[in-house]
Amino acid sequence: MVDITAGLHQATGGSVTTPTSHGTFQLYEHSTRNSNASTNSYIAQYFSSSAEAHANSVSTSEDMETIDLVSEDTEPLVTIDHVGDAVLFSGMSADDDIPGIGQYDDFHTIDWQRDIARDRMRHRYIVKKRQDSIWDLIKGAHDAWSGWVCVLLVGVCTGIVAGVIDIGASWMTDLKFGICPQAFWLNREQCCWSDTDTTFDTGNCSQWLTWPQVLGGQREGPGAYIISYLFYIVWALIFAALSASLVRMFAPYACGSGIPEIKTILSGFIIRGYLGKWTLIIKVVGLILSVSSGLSLGKEGPMVHIASCLGNILSYLFPKYGRNEAKKREILSAAAAAGVSVAFGAPIGGVLFSLEEVSYYFPLKTLWRSFFCALIAAFILRSINPFGNEHSVLFFVEYNKPWIFFELIPFVGLGIIGCGISNSDPLCDYNRNFTDVNSAIEKAAAGPGVYRAIWLLVLALILKLVMTIFTFGIKVPCGLFIPSLALGAIAGRIVGIGVEQLAYNYPKVWLFSGECSTGDDCITPGLYAMVGAAAVLGGVTRMTVSLVVIMFELTGGVRYIVPLMAAAMASKWVGDALGRQGIYDAHIALNGYPFLDSKDEFQHTSLAADVMQPKRNETLSVITQDSMTVDDVETLLKETEHNGYPVVVSKESQYLVGFVLRRDLNLAIANARRTMEGITGQTVVIFAGSNQPLSPPPCLMLNRILDMAPITVTDQTPMETVVDMFRKLGLRQTLVTHNGRLLGVITKKDVLRHVKQMDNEDPNSVLFN
Amino acid sequence: MTLRFIVLICAATCALAVSDHSYEDNRCKCVCPSPAAVLNDTAAADRSPFMKSANVPPNKCNCESVILPRVADQIKGREQEFCPRCECKYENRNTTIIKVVVIIVIWVIMLLVVYMGFLICLDPLINKRAKASYQEHTNEDDESTLGGPSQQMGARGNVLNRVTHQQDKWKRQVREQRRNIYDRHTMLN
């Protein structure tokens, strides 16, 4: 076996990093366990096509880079035995045998290594089959490009759905005010599209009838006002009630923004139904309804959720992704990018958002796919042209005025304000529409009442803050982006007016003397609003790079990158000083999801032996490789609640053989009882190592579900390393050994609890496995 | 600042607007100051006249060919001052997409409301007895347990049975979700 491994290294020597090829042999051995004679031929076939082997290792080397990274960093204490490859769910054939293997239970953590290994197996199987026939060649080609096709479909669907939401929401919003009788499907702007009477002032035209006019009254007057008021209230109530009851009735998971959950799911967690069909439908319909009801919420967070739902649903068209949770998350990362791309009309911002905020495992391959997906989604939305102008977002502003260096100081100040607000309550939710702000400002600018405008803006700020806090708790699809942006824009506008007045009243001060001496309006309050919006959003979500890119893509103001960067940075600093987490991380912590943040550092000096289960005086539940009966195993499954069991040579020696998952064990035993004859309670279960499978009572061979390459560490490994391994490899559990003998298990939950304990928090707040 | 009005000039080039001329898919939109403002007539508060012109091709969408013929009498030869302040844009839209989308949205909402009403009012009456059996399945079904019964049912049952089965499964899932969200408050609280 050693010789063959060495030969494999030579055969794949052309690649950059030879992946842990030592597992390959075991794998092929086990996938053909019933006919040992054919093992050699498989290997011969494998070696006969060195080009294939090369391609294979190239494709896998990407996945393995993280592992190499870790093994370089780790201290010599760590023993990463066999990584990944030797997992014995040998691709297609085993999956067909026992249904459900490779799936996970609800609210469980996935094992990235196992899934990636499964995909590698499947890939090798396809590569091997490719020589057999033309049809297999086509299937192989389809498999190779299915990632791009899936991402393309996700982009197209996301763009279409975003167009539907934009059109539907704008129509329903205007339904509160009136109707276009000749063509009821047009909103007010579209209804007056070709009317020549339109002015900027009212936006009304003769084709568009307000509700009092529909009822036969006049447009103006107290009676008309009351009728309009009533209609507005009634429509808003109907929309909001409908949205809430649809969510409650059909898909409770559709409530909220969904980004914390998406983040957790992408970090390797299963929430069944969270990305399902019904969630998608209800989220789309509910989002249209709740946006048009005028609640203080935005559609950006839900758009990310909707795009992820689409990614999940469409990935089932491609078994490569649909049946492999780790691979599916690559599609979901790309989908999240598409969601932001259509929500803000910011494709690059979407990719960066996916990279910075939501994704956990983000190799370059996923980056390119996200880029492509965001591009396609933005293109489709632009083609649908939901607003009838060439912008794909509702609030496109265009500033082209220069800013002066001194203004960086108030911009930084805005950043500080931004996070002060965000920290008053991480769960809060702010609400004020851009249109509202604009109307308030125009009123003020028109008359002499600039001070009145400021007073109105302050009032709006307070009201929106309070309203948003309440709105975010309502169980309807709602996002936080637009309310935060609006809140920041209000604050920014106030500061901007202040600076403008300062420059106007003291034009001789040296700060302004250079640029403002001409008497032109050198300070643009609107720019302050933009920067303030970025600052508040940065304070709430703690984004930096993606936020700046989203803002300048959203507003088209490339020349304001530096002010935006300054504000975002200041906002992040102050926010991090006042409170630790952004709102999404806070939500994750509140809900107790097992999210191991890859941004935090673990700085304590504990060892693996301190964290592992079982503690002292408890026994570790293990399964022996070839001496337990079916009854023994079932008793063990009944009496303990662990999600996986180490398999050892014998209880006395405790030498580690492998690791088997509870779910797989259950499924395999149930499957064996159903399909094989002669399985009784006394049947011996054999996982590995047995050399006499021909004993008269048939024995149950379960070597397929045994993971022969569990990650192990020694008991003296520092926790820093262990936490790093969990983060970078995406482990679900690791086994702890001492002198080569099994000592205990560390699961992700143990790690999370330990981190919480070390940070003086309640470790019981980690709820799920 | 001068008063700025929007002057909408719309061009009917789309075949869709044969019957109803006011909902075309193309327009030339010009935003101009009122002529009075250009002429330094600060007292003039009257709005600039709004004009409508048919069949403006995209290359003719500019101030000279769209606005000037309409306001020539007011401008009195000061075109050189007036036109640079106008912005003309040729814009497209697609009313068919809007129509289809809005109608689909209305239909979907109505269907959902009707189905919700059915589930709330009629469904408990129809199958009261089935209710007890839901409660036993608290765990999510995985594919293995689902695969067995549904295949057997496919053999002997009809389409209706399968639909009911799917519906029951879906109802269980929703109940589970509702418990997570509204009762236990383990999510999104």
From TrEMBL, chain A:
InterPro entries: CBS_dom, CBS_dom_sf, Cl-channel_core, ClC. Its main location: membrane. Residues 612-675, 702-763 form the CBS domain. The chain crosses the membrane at residues 145-165, 226-247, 280-297, 303-319, 331-355, 367-384, 404-423, 453-473, 480-499, 527-552. It is a multi-pass membrane protein. Residues 1-22 are annotated as: Disordered. It is found in: Endosome membrane; Membrane. Pfam families: CBS (PF00571), Voltage_CLC (PF00654). PROSITE patterns: CBS (PS51371). The keyword Translocase does not apply. GO terms for cellular component: early endosome; endosome membrane; Golgi apparatus; plasma membrane; synaptic vesicle. GO terms for molecular function: voltage-gated chloride channel activity. Keywords: CBS domain, Chloride, Ion transport, Membrane, Transmembrane, Transmembrane helix, Transport. The keyword Transport applies. It comes from the Eukaryota. SMART domains: CBS. CDD domains: CBS_pair_voltage-gated_CLC_euk_bac, ClC_3_like. Residues 12-22 have a biased composition (Polar residues). Belongs to the chloride channel (TC 2.A.49) family. This is Chloride channel protein. It comes from Helicoverpa armigera.
From TrEMBL, chain B:
Residues 1-17 form the signal peptide. InterPro entries: TMEM9/TMEM9B. It is found in: Membrane. It comes from the Eukaryota. Keywords: Membrane, Signal, Transmembrane, Transmembrane helix. Its main location: membrane. The chain crosses the membrane at residues 97-122. The keyword Signal applies. GO terms for cellular component: lysosomal membrane. Belongs to the TMEM9 family. This is TMEM9 family protein. It comes from Helicoverpa armigera (Cotton bollworm).
